[in-house]
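A quick aside before the break. I want you to see a complete sequence-to-structure record at least once, exactly as it would be stored in a machine-readable document. Don't worry about memorizing anything.
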Amino acid sequence: MLRNIFLLCVIARSFVRSSYKIVLYKKNLVPILLLAGLTAESQAQINSSSAHEAIRHYAEDYVRDLVATQPDDKLEVNAASIDTRVQLTECLGKLTANIRGSGEIKRNTHVYLQCHETPSWDLFVPVRVRILKPVVTALDPIARNTLLQASHLTIEYEDEVLLRGDIFSRVSELVGSRSKRDLRPGQPIRSSQLCVVCKGDKVSILAKTGGLMLRTDGIAEEDGSFNDSIRVSNLNSGRKISARVMAAGQVQVKL
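That is the input. The structure line, written in tokens, reads:
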């Protein structure tokens, strides 16, 4: 009798332990299943986001290949973000792009993208284009009547849409000229702010005839920038002549 009671107690204890393990297993299984579901959903979102980014870069590259620039220019091409709620596939090898209408690339352009796989899709992607031009600016504040040297100047890049007037793209063009007014850093230096040849400067007067180039000295009677015609006194003859400004300290006359 006692033996039977002992066996029943052992069986009951084993059943309780087994039930407890099952409960613990279920409790641990729920977070694992939830985590697996969240991971799958997150991975799907990552894949979708990657596809949208790849499509956006495709539109940028398409526009970049069509924009004509000069060797010293900088080109900025930025496509707008694509709403990730729009269902898109990466469409490798089956994606085409074009510019509707005249096909002209403008500052704000819409690229038409079309996927030719199944399921197919198409959409317009807005793309903003900026061409930045090199311009010479003051490295530090420059006072009026300063004889410009390369150390005074630097190159910055400006949106071509914002550039107006006679500006310079190479520092060497301004070396030896003189500032007619104070110059501030970060602003393009214009020819109207300089005298490449200033009144009272000693200049070389060049005269080209046939295959010969004649040279004599003179004194500038007025300020002049590039290609300006100014009055110059010939030191040898004493005559006042009209000459075109070619470079700092140099003018040319026609014979």
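Two observations worth writing down. The radius of gyration is 38 Å. DSSP finds one helix and twelve strands in the chain. We'll return to this after the break.
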